[in-house]
Amino acid sequence: MSYGLQFSINYTWSHFLDDLDSAGFGAREGFQNYLNSFDPSANYSNGNFDIRNMFKGQVIYQLPFGRGHQFLNNNLVLDELLGGWQISSVYVIEGGNPMGITTGNNNNANNRSGSFTQEANRVPGTSLSLPGGTKQRLEEWYNLNALTVPDPNTYGTFRRNTVYGPGVVNVAASLGKTFDIWPERGMKLQIRADAGNVLNHASFGQPGNNAIGPGQSAQITSTTVGGRQIQLYGRISF
User: Fold this and answer.
1) How high is the mean pLDDT of the chain?
2) Rounded-to-10 torsion of CA 16, 17, 18, 22
């Protein structure tokens, strides 16, 4: 803590590769079966937890007003009005999780994938990516024309977990003030306001049903972080 300020900032770049993992968080799990159980290495690609960039941290700042601080420190009225206020924030900004895009049914009579679906086929010469930011791509997150159902008894050429969903932005903040009620006894009153997702920023879920063929969709219709929530409360400590 220096001049009433304390902060921590963390940035992580990572790349997670594996054959298969079967867990996820916040409904963000990826494809969870082997393309060909007789050739596990064909599954080797980005893991379901592969988030390339993460920016996280927290900050606490005691405003420099009132008794014991730099400004307005010798006036009882101003101290009661302006002294003792503290603001803080915790924030998470990170890239999206990978997702599976499959045939939507068992397309392989050889049954080497068990009863599960297989990966789709990539259409040569087409791009999976579409132009625009997140909000411009909500109706079609990836190019539907770039993928097709493989021929019966063949394996798709789409590489596992090479399409990524939207990222997450979540900033929480609080503002509070502590009053001395009975200084000799250490009794204090704190009033505080907390806000989750204070920016009211929409963090969107994964797109569509991810199944190639009739009824296929790459539309995003959900969010992973709810709207802004605010709570007000008071606390007496002694």
Assistant:
1) 83
2) 40
- Of 63, 95, 92, nearest in space to 79 by CA: 63
pLDDT tens digits, residue range 54-65?
999 999 998 887
What per-residue confidence (pLDDT) applies to 1? 59
Residue 157 CB neighbour total at 10 angstroms: 14
Give me the domain span that covers residue 182: 5-237
The two tokens of residue 212 are 């190639």
Looking at the DSSP bridge assignments, the partners of residue 203 are 225
Q: Say if residues 232 and 123 touch (Cβ distance below 8 Å).
A: no
- Tens digit of pLDDT for each residue in 109-129? 565 665 567 788 889 999 988
CB 66 within 8 A of CB 84: yes
Q: How many domains does the chain have?
A: 1
Rounded to 5 degrees, φ, ψ at 78 are -65, -35
Question: Do 238 and 184 touch, CB atoms closer than 8 A?
Answer: no
What's the rounded Cα separation, in Å, for the pair 154 and 152? 6
User: Rounded to two decimals, what is the model's pTM?
Assistant: 0.78
Q: How is residue 100 written in tokens? A: 């599976």
Alpha-carbon span 155 to 149, nearest angstrom: 10
Q: How far apart are CA 118 and CA 150, in angstroms?
A: 9
Q: CB-based contacts of 146: which residues, under 8 Å, 6+ apart?
A: 122, 123, 126, 127, 128
**Strands 17-18, 121-122: parallel, antiparallel or unpaired by DSSP?**
unpaired
